[in-house]
From TrEMBL:
Assigned GO CC terms: postsynaptic density
UniProt entry tagged with the keyword Lipoprotein: yes
Molecular-function annotations in GO: calcium ion binding; calcium sensitive guanylate cyclase activator activity
Keywords linked to the UniProt accession: Calcium, Lipoprotein, Metal-binding, Myristate, Repeat
The name this protein goes by in its record: Neuronal calcium sensor 1
Domain of life: Eukaryota
Pfam families registered for this protein in UniProt: EF-hand_7
Positions of the EF-hand domain: 60-95, 96-131, 142-177
Gene3D superfamilies (alphabetical): EF-hand
SMART domains assigned to the protein according to its UniProt record, in alphabetical order: EFh (SM00054)
Length: 202
């Protein structure tokens, strides 16, 4: 798909409809908004961070936005093209629980080795705490305490790292992890579609 293409042709719309959970009409709508804000057809890491900054003005979302950017940037070329953007948005907004948790697992697995270490999860949770600002941090335990609680529940074999199976099994069955305040640590993509929609479709 051409990076600077102003309009999508019929075949591209059909392909994107098959790859995502959006209709052709919705895809056109998203594409128009994407091209309006990203006329080059690519979203840079800096531009991506600005989206988060608008919606988390009391915190510093820089680190977290970069972690999320790396998951969106599927081909690893340092920018997000429309197809990558739409596919990630499809999972985070309309994907099944398994799909969303697999996406979240990829976010936490910073070195892409198929496991999540305490260090990796701590990096993400610290980034979330920085993003939400001081008010939220005063009401919460420390990032390390949060990570310890999650690992106590998820690390079934006690080897100090989480496999995808361990992560998904507990996240799907333990309501104290999947719902409520802890949800941001397990499925950080949960609210992304709401504010990204406001940004690109306004």
């Amino acid at each position: 798909m051409g990076a600077k293409q102003a309009k999508l042709n019929k075949k591209q719309l059909e392909d994107l409809s098959e790859k995502t959970k959006f209709s052709a009409k919705e895809i056109k709508h998203w594409h128009n908004g994407f091209m309006k804000d990203c006329p080059t057809g690519k979203l840079s890491k800096g531009e991506f961070s600005k989206i988060y900054t608008q919606f988390f003005p009391k915190g510093d979302p820089t680190a977290f936005s970069q972690f999320v950017f790396n998951v969106f940037d599927d081909n690893g070329d340092g920018s997000i093209e429309f197809e990558e953007f739409l596919q990630a948005l499809s999972v985070t907004s309309r994907g099944k629980l398994d799909e969303k948790l697999e996406w979240a697992f990829r976010l936490y697995d910073l070195d892409n080795d198929g496991t999540i270490t305490r260090k990796e999860m701590t990096a993400i949770v610290e980034a979330i705490f920085s993003m939400v600002g001081e008010n939220e941090k005063k009401e919460s335990c420390t990032p390390q305490e949060r990570v310890n609680k999650i690992f106590d529940k998820m690390d079934k074999d006690g080897n100090g790292s989480l496999s995808k199976e361990e992560f998904m099994e507990v996240a799907k069955t333990d309501k104290s992890i999947v719902q409520g305040r802890a949800c941001k640590q397990v499925n950080p993509c949960a609210g992304f579609n709401h504010f990204v929609g406001d940004f690109f479709l306004s």
